[in-house]
Amino acid sequence: MKQNLNLFICAFFLAALSAASAQQSAQGDGASKTQSIQTAETGWQVVCRAANQDRSKLGCAVIHETYSAQDRARLTSVEIVKNDKNRTMIVSVPQGVSLKDGIELGIDGTKQGVLAYSHCISNSCFATFELTDAVVNTLKKSKSLELTFLDLQASKIKTDIPMSGFVQALGKAD
Fold it and tell me: b/e map of 70-108 (b: 16 or more CB within 10 Å)?
């Protein structure tokens, strides 16, 4: 029991030292840094689920996920869901982000706006965006979708999502 307590205390101090070291290096020059993370992606996919209680109707969404190539942890997920009137984009990022700064959304290098976070769960934070027909048409013609958000040390994390395959996936989801 005492040995387990000692191991826990050692692990706690090592974690605290590691976090303090990371924070000092992040604050070193006082400027905001952009993290470069090696990523892997799923490409644009269609996922269909039961859309009502009796499972008589399917609702399909277009989804793209980006993972860290190092440990396969999910970095971002973009899901486009169609409802009766329009489409909604749901963006998820990992916990540990600066909630007050939101997620900057860009298309082909042009900033479109900042998405406010709606909520967080145990492993992700979410922001939603109602897509007009004009935005959907812009996405269909685009080459990349850019998501930029800040971690708690104010480092920018940017993910470029290629739009190849988007039009075909969107057509299948409808």
Answer: eeeeebbbbbbbbeeeebebbbbbbeebeeebbbbbbbe
